[in-house]
Design brief:
The complex is a heterodimer of chains A (about 110) and B (about 120). Chain A is built from no helices and 11 strands. Chain A is mainly beta and about 110 residues long. In chain A, strands 2, 4, 5, 9, 10 and 11 form a 6-stranded mixed β-sheet that branches. Chain A starts with a strand and ends with a strand. Chain B is an all-beta fold and about 120 residues long. The termini of chain B are far apart. In chain B, the strands form 2 sheets. In chain B, strands 2, 4, 5, 6, 9, 10 and 11 form a 7-stranded mixed β-sheet that branches. The chains are: A mainly beta (about 110), B mainly beta (about 120). The interface between A and B is medium-sized, with 24 and 25 residues.
C-alpha cells in the first residue's frame, strides 16, 4: 500500500464549478499535512497546510480526518488558473527522521 | 531575498557520463532535500542533508548516486555513469529546521535528459 494515495484523476471541470480531491495516508504517526500545487514542468508550491480543525483560504478549504487518515481539498468557484496538478503531502516520521511524502498528484483542468 | 536556486535548469548527458546538479538553499535554511520526478509520476524523496551530514538517504539508489552538502557552497547531487532511466526532473527543497512541519521551499528544478 502506498504511503499517500490520491484520486487518480484527471478531473475536467467547467469554470465556476466546485471540485473536491481526496487523499488517504497509511502511517498513523503522520504529523503534518499539506496541499501543494504543481503547474506543468514547474516546481511544487505550497498551497496550504491542513489542520485538524479544518481550514479555509479564500476559495480553498482543507479538511483532515485523523481517525480515517483522510485529507480533502475543496475548490469553490473554480477559475481557469486553478488548472494544475494538486499534490497531497504528508510529513511521515521514519526512524526518528521526518520527511515529506508526496502523493502522485491529481490533475485538474478547468474548462472555459 | 533569493529562493532556492538550482542549476543548471537543463542538463543533457550521454549514457555513461556524469551529471552534477547543484542546489543553493534559501538564505537562513540549513536543511536540503532532493527529490526526483519521473515523467508523469509524483515526486520521490531521495535524500535529506544538513551541512556536512547526510541525515536520511533512504530514497537514493544504491549505486551511481551520491549527494553532499559541504560546509561552504551548494549541495551537489551527483549521478555517475548515467543511463536513460535517469532522465527526470530533479528538485531541491530547503527548510529552516529539521522539523517536517516546516513547509519546504522548492527550486525550479533541473531537467536531466540522457541521450
Amino acid at each position: 500500500r502506498k504511503e499517500v494515495e490520491q484520486d487518480p484523476g484527471p478531473f475536467n471541470v467547467p469554470e465556476g464549478a466546485t471540485v473536491a480531491f481526496n487523499c488517504t495516508y497509511s502511517n498513523s504517526a503522520s504529523q503534518s499535512f499539506f496541499w501543494y500545487r504543481q503547474d506543468c514542468r514547474k516546481e511544487p508550491k505550497l498551497l496550504m497546510s491542513v489542520y485538524s480543525s479544518g481550514n479555509e483560504d479564500g476559495r480553498f478549504t482543507a479538511q483532515l480526518n485523523r481517525a480515517s487518515q483522510y485529507i480533502s481539498l475543496l475548490i469553490r468557484d473554480s477559475k481557469l488558473s486553478d488548472s494544475a496538478t494538486y499534490l497531497c503531502v504528508v510529513n511521515i516520521r521514519n526512524f526518528g527522521n521526518e520527511k515529506l511524502t508526496f502523493g502522485t498528484g491529481t490533475r485538474l483542468t478547468i474548462i472555459p | 531575498n533569493a529562493g532556492v536556486m538550482q542549476n543548471p535548469r537543463h542538463l543533457v548527458r550521454r549514457r555513461g557520463q556524469e551529471a552534477r546538479l547543484r542546489c543553493s538553499p534559501m538564505k537562513g535554511h540549513s536543511h536540503v532535500y532532493w527529490y526526483r520526478q519521473l515523467p508523469e509520476e509524483g515526486l520521490k524523496f531521495m535524500v535529506y542533508l544538513q551541512k556536512e551530514n547526510i541525515i536520511d538517504e533512504s530514497g537514493m539508489p544504491k549505486e551511481r548516486f551520491s549527494a553532499e552538502f559541504p560546509k561552504e557552497g551548494p549541495s551537489i547531487l551527483r549521478i555517475q555513469q548515467v543511463v536513460r532511466g535517469d532522465s527526470a526532473a530533479y528538485f531541491c527543497a530547503s527548510s529552516p529546521s529539521f522539523r517536517g512541519s516546516q513547509p519546504q521551499h522548492f527550486g525550479d528544478g533541473t531537467r536531466l535528459s540522457i541521450l
